[in-house]
């Protein structure tokens, strides 16, 4: 029972669990430690599953992934000291990716504050720069109250992570139930959906109506805001070509007449109106320099600090992507001539550019060469995906290849680390995705270097019966870095600190109770994927790819020039 029936008291750990339950959380990702076990006891009573992993980084990444898949905040629980520091990378990744999650870390007892207790570190000081909220819970009575406060702060502006440390004596202590503040589900957070300035939306509608060559980039916030239908209605009603990045991929299905991918650079050079939705002008956008200097640029974002950062804009709107696009479409389509008919030639022009780019690359995608051309591998993966396959990319060069070719067929079915570029998210994201959507197929493409970072949690997937299809593009190298070193210092120094062993990851999978298969011939890729699907187990297909072939995106990275 959550409360002691005889004394009418409740412990701090059980208050944590009650607060998590109020937020709708049904699972925590964790690695055990003596500081935090009372939370587990509370979770059992509240019906919250405890998924224990082999590294705290995985727990934090899984909480991040759970938030992306479900739209609810994720939660990871780790012990003090090294348990919390191990999770820092996962929290930092969620921070840059605007993913709402709560990390709860243990801490030494308040009664031993500053005495050098086991695993005592200044966690809050370390977490403050990479969270939206970080605090110590000072008393048992306040535990649930401050957990709800942390969740509330996750949704202040663009979403992000929060951190709480809870001292061991605060967690273990029991207080009278009537003295503990326990916020009621649904009554401690307001709606954060903002429409944006109505005058700015009218101006956006006017810009669209008079535009001859508009283009829109649908970024991750389109999925964060669950704005898929609004975005689709917008581009179809106004005949606007759409490009997608990050979690925005899949907003429009492949083959949709408004879905474009390979002509983005051309479009952003030739367009007279460019609408950027939920994507910052960071390195992925060339800090805004890749947009035509003569185009009218509109930026829509949840966070006012992102709007106009790194590049001047003509119109900035702070608000929910779905509400803003829906309102702008309504304002524009209400006009006698919204310009959609005359934009037909513009879409035809972009489609011609798109087709030429596809045909130029197609021979590589169908290549029968050995070692396998990475383009062939990602082509086979793209052809293998179903409408219910969640695709995850975890790697450097090999995932850069996939970004050009792999097209998820449904919204919310693309996962990548985000702008922090964190390697090692793959197994954790697969864990979260499969736990949250057991009816979905999950496929993760790893680089061999990326898998090596957190791959032991493949065993967690086996233990919790979470089948997924893992594909390792194995070139025995950290190839994205290798290219940069060779380009910068010469081929004779291109193999310094970036070369890995020829590891048989298929054997590793079998050793841990999963399905494993090795592929050297490109003709064997699809059959191996099919067998992995049919196995019903966590699987690793170890595909040997050509180590001397690099993705165009790798070769174009400015850090190497």
Question: What does this entry look like structurally?
Answer:
Residues 11-120 form the Thiamine pyrophosphate enzyme N-terminal TPP-binding domain. It comes from Planotetraspora kaengkrachanensis. This is Acetolactate synthase I/II/III large subunit. Its cofactor is thiamine diphosphate. With 561 residues, the protein is an alpha/beta fold. Helix content is 39%, strand content 17%. The protein is built from 23 helices and 20 strands. The chain has a six-stranded parallel beta sheet, sandwiched between helices. Strands 16-15-17-18-20-19 form a six-stranded parallel beta sheet, with helices on both faces. The mean pLDDT is 94.
- Strand portion, in percent? 15-25%
Numbering strands along the chain, what is their spatial order in the largest sheet? 4-3-5-6-8-7
What structural category characterises the helix and strand content? alpha/beta
Which parts are unreliable, with pLDDT below 50 for 5 consecutive residues or more? none
Helix content: 25-40%
Taking the alpha carbons of the first and last residues, their distance comes to 62 Å
Number of helical elements: 23
User: How can the largest sheet be summarized?
Assistant: 6 strands, parallel
The chain-level mean pLDDT equals 94
What is the molecular shape? globular
The Rg value, from CA coordinates, equals 25 Å
Could you tell me the number of beta strands?
A: 20
